[in-house]
TrEMBL record:
<feature type="transmembrane region" description="Helical">
    <location>
        <begin position="7"/>
        <end position="25"/>
    </location>
</feature>
<keyword id="KW-0812">Transmembrane</keyword>
<keyword id="KW-0472">Membrane</keyword>
<dbReference type="GO" id="GO:0055085">
    <property type="term" value="P:transmembrane transport"/>
</dbReference>
<dbReference type="GO" id="GO:0005886">
    <property type="term" value="C:plasma membrane"/>
</dbReference>
<keyword id="KW-0813">Transport</keyword>
<dbReference type="Pfam" id="PF00528">
    <property type="entry name" value="BPD_transp_1"/>
</dbReference>
<dbReference type="InterPro" id="IPR035906">
    <property type="entry name" value="MetI-like_sf"/>
</dbReference>
<dbReference type="Pfam" id="PF19300">
    <property type="entry name" value="BPD_transp_1_N"/>
</dbReference>
<feature type="domain" description="ABC transmembrane type-1">
    <location>
        <begin position="93"/>
        <end position="293"/>
    </location>
</feature>
<keyword id="KW-1133">Transmembrane helix</keyword>
<feature type="transmembrane region" description="Helical">
    <location>
        <begin position="133"/>
        <end position="156"/>
    </location>
</feature>
<feature type="transmembrane region" description="Helical">
    <location>
        <begin position="99"/>
        <end position="121"/>
    </location>
</feature>
<dbReference type="InterPro" id="IPR000515">
    <property type="entry name" value="MetI-like"/>
</dbReference>
<keyword id="KW-1003">Cell membrane</keyword>
<feature type="transmembrane region" description="Helical">
    <location>
        <begin position="168"/>
        <end position="190"/>
    </location>
</feature>
<dbReference type="InterPro" id="IPR045621">
    <property type="entry name" value="BPD_transp_1_N"/>
</dbReference>
């Protein structure tokens, strides 16, 4: 019953988000035909293009046609590119997934062992300095960090190329820039979990019964990492739906950059397709996170 409720909520959320996004975009002032042809175009040309694009049809008919197309995976053709929206999204998706996966790997590799090392530090002054550095990492603006990193590592040191050049190596620097604030968030979260787990009754019981410090630390770390599963999901959602600023700085042709182009050119089919795609990704990832979390911690199913 728990999983059935989750599936029904997921389907309803996708339907609701898709419908609302379609209606809101239709209410935006402006004429896509005029945006495509330009201000110097004649009224006859604009009227002809509106007819070709189907903009003269009633709203209800356009909504039904759009909904029917969504069910078959057809989001229509892009006004700007003249290609199927689904093809444009699928072309950008692999690169966005690469960025997301590389960033998550960086965050987990750095944050989990570093959190455990910080947790073992008892000096209060050192802890305050570390907390300040963590707060600094979290609060750094991504555009500033991206520009500074590119100037330092690409222009001065020449370790990386300036921008994306179709290689995995060129993605390491933008992924590192995206990872820094997330590393700070993860370290802060895991460190707090470690301190909570240290005060739990099972920890005292294992310690009193002479469990070796290695295994005691292993249990504490394991139970501290489990609650970050939702945090990983939220970061993954943010990455897959597009880190717009970083994609612009490093010239990465991902989903976020495609969205900017679509909005600037009032490419309604492409904007609608991207919003629906990102909504579906978010809802499905949330469902997947709940599923994994309920398997790891069965108490979740009984509480709901």
């Amino acid at each position: 019953m728990y999983y059935l409720k989750k599936i029904l909520k997921m389907v309803f959320s996708i339907y609701l988000i898709g419908s609302i996004s379609f209606l809101l975009l239709e209410m935006i002032p402006g004429d896509p035909a005029l945006a495509i042809l330009g201000l110097e175009s004649s009224a006859e040309d604009i009227a002809m293009l509106r007819n070709i694009l189907g903009l003269n049809k009633r709203l209800q008919k356009r909504y039904l046609e759009w909904g029917k197309g969504v069910l078959t995976g057809n989001f229509g053709n892009s006004f700007k590119y003249g290609e199927p929206v689904s093809n444009l999204i699928m072309e950008r998706l692999p690169l966005t997934l690469k960025v997301a996966i590389l960033t998550i790997i960086m965050v987990l590799i750095v944050s989990i062992p570093l959190s455990f090392m910080i947790y073992r530090i008892k000096n209060k002054k050192v802890r305050k300095i570390i907390d300040f550095i963590i707060g600094l990492c979290i609060s750094m603006p991504s555009f500033w960090l991206g520009i500074i990193s590119m100037f330092l590592f690409s222009v001065i040191l020449k370790w990386f190329s300036v921008g994306y050049d179709n290689t995995i190596i060129s993605l390491l620097l933008p992924c590192f820039v995206i990872a820094i604030p997330n590393i700070g968030i993860f370290i802060s979260y895991i460190k707090n979990n470690l301190e909570v787990e240290l005060r739990e009754e099972y920890t005292k019981y294992l310690f009193v019964n002479g469990v070796k410090s290695f295994w005691l630390n292993f249990y504490i770390l394991k139970n501290s990492v489990i609650p970050i599963i939702p945090l990983i999901g939220l970061m993954l959602i943010d990455l897959i739906t597009g880190v717009v600023i970083i994609e612009q700085i490093f010239s990465i042709p991902g989903i976020g950059r495609l969205m900017i182009t679509a909005v600037v050119n009032r490419d309604l089919p492409l904007v609608q397709g991207l919003i629906f795609y990102t909504s579906v990704v978010m809802v499905m990832l949330n469902f997947l996170i709940d599923l994994i979390y309920s398997i790891v911690d069965p108490r979740i199913r009984s509480e709901r």
